[in-house]
Design goal:
globular, 2 strands, 66% helix, two-stranded parallel sheet, mainly alpha, 366 residues
Length: 366
């Protein structure tokens, strides 16, 4: 690890502090997309948000470069961890996404016509959902305050994937990089083999884990938190159906599918080919920074609240995003998540790029 010191440290921390406002990029790009479409009547503009995320961001991240510097643990960790700015920035993403979702449903149902134009718009909403509802929801459900966990659950409910709140914390983080984890992709497994199995098993496992919790604590079935979160999803869908009809409900469901679809693509990327060793006692070694792929491209990291410092997150899951660290000893992705998603969609290209990296990493570690 490389620890920053002195003025360079302060300047980079200040840059990152306000660069996290890039979370506004996708909802603002949707607003710009709609305004340009209304002005020009050219459906091309309805693709603006995914074009920014999957074309502009990958280009800019290569130009801006990497960030492998870390905070000073002794002098900065406690202060940064307690600053309310970082906490409220992600909590307020819940009402932000709700407003964006409502505006998106209105435009989809009453303004935008033609299936190609509507497809572009709902894909833009799903991309925004992946960046805000899924990514920020993931950060919040790990935290130790009721308000943060509640906001995280609300965000996940807005994309109909509330089971992630249970399964990710009590399933994925326990079994990551082992054969017991459906969210850890195997060496040689394609995205198209991984994705449906991950969605199905993670959803079913969330219900199983909640059932076990209720039985262990002798609680009634209605204390199952998934009932509440999926009921919230149903209420949101019902409201959209009442206000905007079938188009409103369709918009809500499809943007959800796209958003949590991206989540499982990222899960595929984050642990591909990595494995925890099974010990003589039958248990797996403790999770450490070698069991997740790390990516230190600065632009994508601030856009995603340092989700790409995933190695540190799995080793220390309650560390807040602003103090996550880069580890040189972690396996390193060749690009940020936006680029890696595009590569993962083409299995021969993915295997050609990633398989040698997995093999080389373990050859060097042995």
């Amino acid at each position: 690890m490389t620890t920053m010191t002195g003025k360079a440290n302060d300047h980079l921390l200040m840059l990152k502090k306000y660069a996290y406002l890039l979370v506004l990029l996708t909802p603002l790009s949707m607003l710009a997309s709609y305004a340009l479409w209304r002005t020009t009547q050219d459906d091309f503009w309805l693709w603006l948000t995914p074009a920014i995320v999957f074309i502009l961001v990958p280009v800019l991240e290569q130009l801006i470069g990497r960030d492998s510097d870390n905070i000073n643990e002794e002098t900065q960790f406690e202060d940064l961890s307690k600053q309310r700015y970082y906490r409220w920035l992600i909590i307020l993403c819940a009402p932000l996404y709700l407003l964006t979702l409502a505006a998106g449903a209105w435009a989809f149902s009453t303004q935008i016509e033609g299936w190609l134009a509507q497809l572009a718009w709902v894909f833009s909403m799903g991309t925004t959902g992946a960046v805000i509802a899924i990514n920020v929801g993931h950060e919040l459900i790990h935290k130790n305050t009721k308000l943060e966990r509640f906001a995280g659950g609300c965000l996940l409910a807005m994309v109909c994937y509330a089971g992630f709140k249970v399964e990710h914390v009590r399933g994925h983080h326990v079994w990551v990089s082992t054969p017991n984890d459906p969210s850890s992709s195997r060496f040689g497994q394609s995205l198209y083999h991984f994705w449906p199995r991950a969605v199905w098993h993670n959803t079913m496992n969330a219900w199983r884990l909640e059932h076990q919790r209720l039985r262990r604590r002798q609680l009634p079935f209605w204390r199952n938190e998934l009932i509440g979160w999926y009921s919230l999803s149903a209420v949101l869908g019902g409201i959209m159906l009442m206000i905007w009809g079938v188009d409103g409900l369709l918009f809500f469901l499809v943007q959800s599918l796209i958003a949590f679809g991206f989540l499982e693509v990222i899960n595929y990327i984050e642990h591909y080919g990595l494995a925890r060793r099974e010990q003589d006692n039958g248990r797996y070694e403790k999770t450490n920074v070698t069991h997740s792929w790390n990516s230190n491209f600065l632009l994508t990291n601030v856009l995603l609240f340092q989700l790409q410092r995933h190695s540190d997150h799995h080793a220390f899951p309650q560390r807040r995003y602003q103090v996550l660290r880069h580890h040189d000893e972690s396996p390193q992705l060749p690009a940020g998540y936006a680029t890696m998603i595009l590569i993962a969609l083409i299995p021969p290209l993915w295997f050609r790029i990633m398989n040698p990296r997995v093999e080389r990493y373990y050859d060097q570690a042995s």
